[in-house]
Specification:
heterodimer, A: mainly alpha, 2 domains, 15 helices, 2% strand, globular, disordered N terminus, disordered C terminus, B: 0% strand
């Protein structure tokens, strides 16, 4: 009540200087100036495109010209024409690759979480590809896979007949595997580092206790390491689904935009919008992609809540704190 | 001492399994490191070869002269890499500075003030993580066109600053651990809220700032898709990624030159990696928390 009194009485006499230094005004001034820019960016680059994406998906249009409202025709087009479906099917390769990648990452993370000679060197070497520019990776592997170049030479050393080796990038029965391999090469180390982080957060006395109890490495993995990282592993499995649907760099860079049957869903979307000028269809593709990703996210949340019974409580809900109240009036 | 007795107490069978496990372990680590390094090293070897050498010798043969930096010089000049590095450097610095400032300021407001809309803003950012950025590329392009920001460096920079939920989360987490009593005592001494943020809290955020700088910097430096789409006029703007991508034009299949370009783009990353390894690792862990 004291507040309203002091606030009311001197009100008419307030000069601008005094008014601006009122705690209440100060507080709102800070809130607005500090939050306006990120909110504006969020609006312009997330929510407006989000709304437009849904709107555009109902029209037959290019970037500049609207050819008419078509309702759900763009969606039926995606689900009935085989080329869109093929592009979506390619994601299966990337999903398979992602699962192999996670398994490898888990394996190496486990190895490195035990005492290892030159452990940091191994960790760094396996991780480094993650930091390389995607275009550079594209060139590295174009070179790597070229007939008679790096891969063929190494396989030749190992006793393979170079003549009988396939064309890694041109042969349509194999090129998608080659591309997925580049993606595994690039991201495995990153997964590994995240897993190591999770394993390291386990209380080290647990290992000592297990060692004393005579648990071997495999048992330590099964009963200590795996339970401690199942959340982050599951998270990465789900992320791999969304990641494989939006995979685009390997075919885009190595195959010059997805030639020879390597155009993934995202590349197909890019082509539909920028080359075919069918922005409506491309937006419908984006909406479908988003729905799949949201479903995957919901499944992930359900999985954490009902199967692992965690994930919800390990990120405690935080309420904003309020330091101002008492001091502001001083 | 302790360890020795432990090993001596093992039966021979156990000792053999231990040895086998160690063999498998180091063999697989060596193999994985070899696979990780092989594509890069082969690139490095080729980049030292002269044109004739590249055409005549097998790719995996060592170059005659490891000090032949001619390819690097040619790429730097003809491939426009000098300008590309300058542009990329500029973009990285501006975007990183912006992200750090804006992200920490928003986190400050969200963490320290209870006001109507606080929860709403948090939820808006949370929901944004659900929408895959890649799905909106088409409509973002349309918006950028209508704002006149296509083919402008400013436009590209603004787009890269865009919605950066991860850095906001990293800062929010960090603020949780900064005691409010810091703010209170500063305000008692007559500090304004701006003063509290810039003079007291911002310097304390240093670990979070470094994490955000590294993660964001690497991301922006390696970004290709938007650079290609929004900086189409390559005579005016090239970033490291787009300059590298155009290499197939002037250099055709001359991999000795292309690989020299690839190695050039790797060098900054390698330097950062060597000096900030642990920061990068912990940054990744922090960034992954938001899921």
């Amino acid at each position: 009540m004291a507040q309203t009194l002091t606030a009311k009485a001197p009100k008419p006499k307030l000069s601008f200087r005094e008014w601006i230094s009122l705690p209440r005004v100060q507080k709102w001034f800070v809130i607005v100036t500090f939050a306006i820019v990120p909110l504006l960016l969020l609006l312009v680059f997330t929510y407006i495109p989000f709304g437009k994406m849904i709107e555009f998906s109902l029209y037959d249009r290019s970037y500049t010209k609207i050819r008419g409202f078509v309702g759900l025709k763009n969606y039926t087009r995606i689900f009935t024409r085989s080329d869109y479906f093929d592009a979506m099917f390619l994601s299966v390769y990337y999903m398979g690759g992602a699962l192999i990648q996670l398994a490898l990452a888990l394996y190496f993370a486990t190895l490195l979480s035990f005492k290892t000679r030159a452990g940091n060197l191994f960790k760094g070497t396996i991780f480094f590809p993650y930091l390389i520019n995607g275009i550079a990776i594209g060139f590295i592997f174009k070179f790597f896979y070229t007939r008679g170049f790096v891969l063929d030479t190494v396989l030749g050393f190992l006793g393979f007949n170079p003549e009988s080796l396939p064309y890694w990038l041109r042969d349509q029965s194999i090129n998608n595997y080659s591309l997925v391999a580049t993606s595994v090469w690039r991201y495995m180390g990153q997964n590994m580092v995240m897993f190591i982080g999770a394993i390291m957060s386990v209380d080290p006395t647990l290992y000592e206790a297990a060692e004393i109890d005579g648990a071997n490495r495999w048992k330590q993995f099964l009963y200590i390491i795996l339970p401690s990282i199942k959340t982050i592993v599951m998270l990465n499995v789900i992320l791999s689904i969304t990641g494989s649907l939006s995979a685009f760099e390997p075919p885009y860079v190595i195959m010059g935009g997805g030639a020879s049957g390597t155009a993934t869903y995202f590349i197909k979307m890019h082509q539909t919008a920028h080359i075919d000028q069918r922005v409506g269809t491309a937006c419908a593709m984006a909406v479908v992609l988003m729905i799949i990703i949201i479903i995957a996210t919901i499944l992930q949340k359900l999985f954490f809540r009902f199967v692992l019974k965690e994930g919800v409580d390990d990120v405690p809900e935080r309420s904003p704190k309020k330091p101002r109240k008492k001091l502001a009036r001083v | 001492m302790d360890k020795k007795t432990k090993i001596e107490s093992l039966t021979p069978a156990e000792r053999i399994t231990r040895a086998l496990v160690a063999v498998v372990k180091y063999f697989s680590l060596l193999l994985a490191s070899f696979i990780a390094v092989l594509p890069i090293v082969s690139c490095l070897l080729v980049s030292f070869k002269t044109d004739e050498e590249y055409q005549l010798t097998p790719v995996m043969q060592l170059p005659e002269n490891f000090l032949n930096f001619d390819n690097f010089r040619r790429v730097w000049v003809d491939g426009d890499m000098g300008r590309a590095f300058a542009t990329s450097f500029f973009v990285v610095v501006v975007v990183v500075a912006f992200s750090v400032l804006v992200g920490s300021m928003l986190a400050y407001v969200l963490n320290r003030f209870a006001f109507p809309g606080n929860k709403l803003i948090r939820n808006l950012f949370l929901f944004a993580t659900l929408i895959p950025g890649i799905a909106m590329q088409v409509t973002i392009y349309q918006i950028m066109t209508s704002l006149g920001l296509v083919n402008s460096l400013l436009g590209y920079i603004i787009l890269q600053c865009g919605t950066d939920v991860i850095s906001i989360y990293i800062f929010l987490q960090f603020f949780e651990n900064l005691s409010v009593s810091l703010d209170e005592s500063a305000i008692l001494e007559g500090c304004t809220y701006f003063g509290v943020f810039f003079k007291i809290l911002f310097p304390l955020l240093r670990p979070a700032i470094v994490t955000v700088m590294i993660l964001k910097g690497i991301g922006v430096y390696n970004e290709y898709y938007s650079a290609n789409l929004y900086l189409q006029d390559k005579t005016r703007f090239v970033t490291v990624s787009t300059a590298l991508y155009t290499f197939t034009g002037p250099f055709g299949n001359a991999y000795n030159l292309i690989c020299a370009g690839v190695i050039l783009t790797l060098i900054p990353m390698l330097i950062i990696f060597i000096f900030c390894q642990n920061l990068i690792y912990s940054g990744l862990a922090a960034g992954s928390v938001k899921g």
